[in-house]
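Two entries, shown back to back:
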Amino acid sequence: MPILTAENLSKIYGNKRAALTEALSQFNLTVNKGEFISVMGPSGSGKTTLLNLLSTIDTPTSGKVTINRRNVTSLSKNKLAKFRRNELGFIFQDYNLLNTLTIGENILLPLTLQKRKVKEMRKKT
């Protein structure tokens, strides 16, 4: 059963004033439950763009991303934020912490956004 699919995914950067750059063109992918994949390629080949599109950090120019049978490319910004918070996990290559928070507060941020009880959050920390 697919847990993630990308259908005809394309991303073009730029606008009428700046040069257009096609970072990804008509990309297709299916990842089934239990599978592990890796993305490899030379610098500038579109790896980061692909991962940003699949993880809903960026929006495709065209195409569709489906996660657990849900078309995430059609979600509103609010629903997408909630989906990310409740359904996805990220491990960034570089630290992606808020420097105004402690390590513990950074860890607990998703639970705070979910309005979990302080007692539960302290136990998890």
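entry 2 starts here
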Amino acid sequence: MDDMVTGGYSALNLPFSPEAEQSVLGAVLLDSSCLDRVAEILPRPEYFYQTNNSLIYSTMLEMFTIAQPVDFVTVLEKLKGTPGFDEASGKTYLLQLAQLVPSISNVESYARIVRDKYDVRTLITTSRDIIEEASEGSADAATLLDSAEQRIFDIRRGKNMQGLQRIDEIIVQTFDRLDLLNSPDADLYKGVPTGIKELDDTITGLNRSDFILLGARPGMGKTSFALNIARHAAVKANKKIAFFSLEMSKEQLASRLLSTEAMVGGTKLRT
């Protein structure tokens, strides 16, 4: 199997770790259960930079998905049906993979190296694309900035994605959090109070990862209610607050805050 590389840029410019890629594949060949742990970190074959490694991993994932056994013999047999696959060199390369892996127990660390190199390569190619688009001069600055921000955000979103977790790991994390809630610094880990006792008693304040919807008919005071909560969190709890509104300007929101703080009616304040 030829040691080819993919991508439109020179291998000298795009970083990758052949040792990490080979170690991941070698660990799976020696122990197919490694694929259970690796598949969450490397869900797609394109995370591998070298073409031969990407092809082997793609074959492994395909076999894993349909519950076929994954080992040296089965993977080699599956690869024989791939167009352009050279059986002699491919067999030799698979044997080398199984011999090169330093330790099966470290397969997740090898997979994270592969993933990190992929993220850096993606950042490099995305940056070059942004430069090319900006150099063309066909789009205005606002469009270019929006496009650049979205592309960088997509890279980070993909990096932060996490697959399934075992319940025993989550239970340990939950116990750790409960210990913190009973520690002298408990206030640092409790929800941010809304300033409305009955509401805080029900939802235990504004907690991390909470997504709270406030619903009512038009004109019932939803914005004022939300502003009061934001104001309490900022002034009393000393938290940084961001308030977004699609129907009111920043001046209108500021006027409502002043109206509440000064206890002056909104109409009287405007006139």
